[in-house]
Backbone:
């Protein structure tokens, strides 16, 4: 089928009915019917047909468009924005700013909130205590969307907590996990009392301190001057060590150098975080 514009041009050139039938593809028009302009029109139609065939051939060689619904591998295994050492450096720098009283308390802008509604890319996971004085975003001078935080009294990790950490590392691309304890931790103090004074805890409170008791006993063997403080530091070191072998995803990324797991202790009095790495 030829275009409307070409048919109107053919009429203007004086094509008779048989020639129009040829233009529609219904038959061949006798040469005698065509005027000089009509013959030029016929050549134009042949050229158009040749060009169309060439175009069809070219289109057949074009790579099909990708399925818009296909899953982008980068969404499943997102590339790392920073290295583990860079992420650790950012936390150390942020804590130094906080400890000298220069931390930013600016709230995120509406534009930033809207941007984060589309996805998150935290540069570190912080496993911390629920203590109200130890908010990771504050003590590391971070803002919304920068840290993936898992908090429970005593900085221990349950199976649910482990799943949260693996999710952040595998699907969000976080290159660093910090297990953060703090001085004067009440949960560790309760574990010390259970282990040394046989204090009777019950129910959920006992379940909370049970994972900490091995760290208390290990610290006790070293005869420290302050058992609670020693147990706090031993507890986060033990949790970090267990995380390194607790899941295949974490172990693989550690071996590849794409992940670092470290322990640290926050001093309530000074605001400083002492890292074990």
Residues:
């Amino acid at each position: 089928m030829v275009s409307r514009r070409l048919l109107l041009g053919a009429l203007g050139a004086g094509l008779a009915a048989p020639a129009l039938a040829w233009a529609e593809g219904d038959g061949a028009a006798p040469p005698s019917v065509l005027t000089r302009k009509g013959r030029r029109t016929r050549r134009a139609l042949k050229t158009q047909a040749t060009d169309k065939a060439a175009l069809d051939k070219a289109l057949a060689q074009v790579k099909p468009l990708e399925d818009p619904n296909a899953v982008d591998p980068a969404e499943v295994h997102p590339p790392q924005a920073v290295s583990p050492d860079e992420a650790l450096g950012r936390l150390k720098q942020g804590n130094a700013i906080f400890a000298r009283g220069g931390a930013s308390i600016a709230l995120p802008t509406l534009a930033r909130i809207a941007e984060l509604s589309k996805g998150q890319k935290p540069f570190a996971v912080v496993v911390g205590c629920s203590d109200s004085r130890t908010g990771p975003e504050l003590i590391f001078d971070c803002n919304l969307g920068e840290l993936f935080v898992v908090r429970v009294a005593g900085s221990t990790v349950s199976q649910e907590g482990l799943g949260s950490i693996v999710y952040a590392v595998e699907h969000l691309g976080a290159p660093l996990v910090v297990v953060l304890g703090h001085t004067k931790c009440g949960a560790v103090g309760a574990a010390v009392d259970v282990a040394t004074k046989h204090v009777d805890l019950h129910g959920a409170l006992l379940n909370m301190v049970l994972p900490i008791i091995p760290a208390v006993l290990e610290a006790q063997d070293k005869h420290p001057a302050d058992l609670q403080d020693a147990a706090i530091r031993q507890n986060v070191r033990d949790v970090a060590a267990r995380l390194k072998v607790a899941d295949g995803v974490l172990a693989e990324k550690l071996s590849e150098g794409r992940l670092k797991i470290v322990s640290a202790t926050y001093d309530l009095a000074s605001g400083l975080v002492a890292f074990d790495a």
